[in-house]
Amino acid sequence: MKGLTFENDAFSFRDDLPKNKPDTGELLVKVVSAAVYQDDEAVARGDLEELAGRHTAPVRSGFDFAGIVEEPAEDFAKGDRVFGYVDIMNNAHWAHQEFVPIRPDCVARFPSNLSFAEAATIPMAGMTVLKGLRDVALAAPGETVLVIGGSGALGPLAIQFAKILELDVAAMAGPGKEALLTSLGASRVYDYRATKMADITESYDIILDLSTQYAFADIKHLLSENGRFVPANPFKFPEDLAPDSEAANHIRELLIVKGETADLDVMADWLQTGKVKTFVDSVFPAERFAEAFARLEERSHFVGRVILNFSDQS
């Protein structure tokens, strides 16, 4: 079995790993495509133990994937094309390997109009955005939202989801992204190189920070009286989580801790009907993982997700 292992503080590609076996009630999915994240190395190393727990298996990275059901469970049949995300809080089998056992509530069938690479851009990223806006920020139609990191891996989804939720969307992104993000629904786009956060004078009901670069102190002047700040990584600035902090009345913690097939189905419908577009920046075979991670470092130059392929589509 192919997989990315993390040993001696470094990733390696191996094709001799023992094939995973599902527990009772689990599916076994043959992973075709899986997304890479800038946090993959930190999670694998254990730096974010409070976020994802401590894991000791050789494969310790990869949040979301798309693949083919190898061994069925519940309503899923062998051969079904599914996308999903790992159960990061409960000793998950991570996605950067060829065969992943997974609970049925963490996967859904994805639309036939998507490739495996396109489908792999959605699950954890989409859940983060959907939960962040709808369930954590409790967004109401007509409210204003600023999406920080609007052109990265999650930003294009956030803008599109916000429009579906009938929000007025502004975005902060790298240079040259205004036309794209406007076409997705942003009414205003800030170039973070030309406009500093401290110089923005507009106020917003919701600020969704997908860049994970800003503490509450950096953005508090932008929030309306009842504004909510939703950082994608709530543990990046732990001082903001203190119950007696200035941020306590405004910050909202976002963490995906359980399976939600129903929400994956909602996103699959949006994709099927064309309400949402996916963005794949680049695709690499798994053995070229170093190139994929290097691509992530070019923050201002890519749009959408960087994908690794672990098997073919047959």
Summary of the model, kept short:
This protein is of the alpha/beta class and 314 residues long.
Describe it.
There is one protein chain. This protein is an alpha/beta fold and 314 residues long. The chain has nine helices and 14 strands. The strands form three sheets. Strands 3, 4, 5, 6, 7, 13 and 14 form a seven-stranded mixed sheet that branches. The protein has a five-stranded parallel sheet with strand order 10-9-8-11-12, with helices on one face. β13, α9 and β14 form a beta-alpha-beta unit. The longest helix is centred in the middle third of the chain and has 14 residues. The model has no long low-confidence stretch (mean pLDDT 89).
Task: Indicate the topology.
Layout lengths: L2 E5 L2 E5 L12 E9 L4 H6 L3 H4 L11 E8 L9 E5 L13 E4 L4 E3 L6 H5 L2 H14 L7 E5 L6 H10 L3 E6 L4 H7 L3 E4 L12 E6 L6 H4 L3 E9 L29 H12 L7 E6 L3 H8 L8 E5 L5
Helix pairs in contact: 4-5
Distance between the termini: 16 Å
Over the alpha carbons, how many angstroms does the gyration radius reach? 19 Å
Shape: globular
Number of strands: 14
What fraction, in percent, of the residue positions are helical? 10-25%
- List the helices and strands in order: EEEHHEEEEHHEHEHEEHEHEHE
Q: Kindly estimate the percentage of residues that lie in beta strands according to DSSP.
A: 25-35%
Distinct helical segment count? 9
- On the 0 to 100 scale, the average pLDDT is 89
Largest sheet descriptor: 7 strands, mixed
